[in-house]
Design goal:
single chain, alpha+beta, Chemotaxis protein chec, 26% strand
Length: 143
């Protein structure tokens, strides 16, 4: 599982080095796409395939579905992982996520999110100010 919060640097030519802890999860490939909150999602091959199957099964006549397809699939690409364990971030996605310099990587199970420090700080503020009853309808259980 991809868990935890890490920091990395977006280097020359938009190259981002991934933490060693993620090597096993991304050994089959990595897909990069736009996230939902001014961030980028870096998905494992199986996670991307699962999302692809789900969104392609939706009703294409629905304008919200077409917007989702454009957002997630229209911005997606399979990134090459180099020998130093870095990936390229496209200029378009870099701009939509406000990435420059430091990048915060947040594990989400079978994908990670890439955040600018400013946008991640806003998310942390939301997390720290949430009340437990906001999650009551989600039926969260350990088993």
């Amino acid at each position: 599982m991809l868990l935890g919060v890490y920091s990395s640097i977006l280097e020359d030519k938009n190259r981002l080095v991934l933490p060693d802890r993620f090597k096993d999860e991304y050994k089959d490939g990595i897909y990069i796409t736009r996230g939902f909150d001014r961030n980028i999602m870096a998905l494992t091959l199986s996670a991307f395939e699962s999302i692809y199957e789900r969104v392609m099964s939706l009703n294409l006549a629905d304008p919200v579905v077409r917007l989702l397809l454009r957002m997630v699939l229209g911005n997606a690409y399979r990134a090459e992982i180099t020998s130093d364990w870095s990936i390229d971030i496209s200029d378009i996605l870099k701009g939509t996520a406000d990435l420059e310099g430091e990048v915060i990587l947040v594990g989400q199970g079978d994908f990670i999110e890439l955040w600018s420090p400013e946008n991640w700080s806003k998310q942390e503020e939301k997390m720290f100010n949430v009340e437990a009853n906001q999650f009551a309808t989600l039926n969260i259980a350990s088993r």
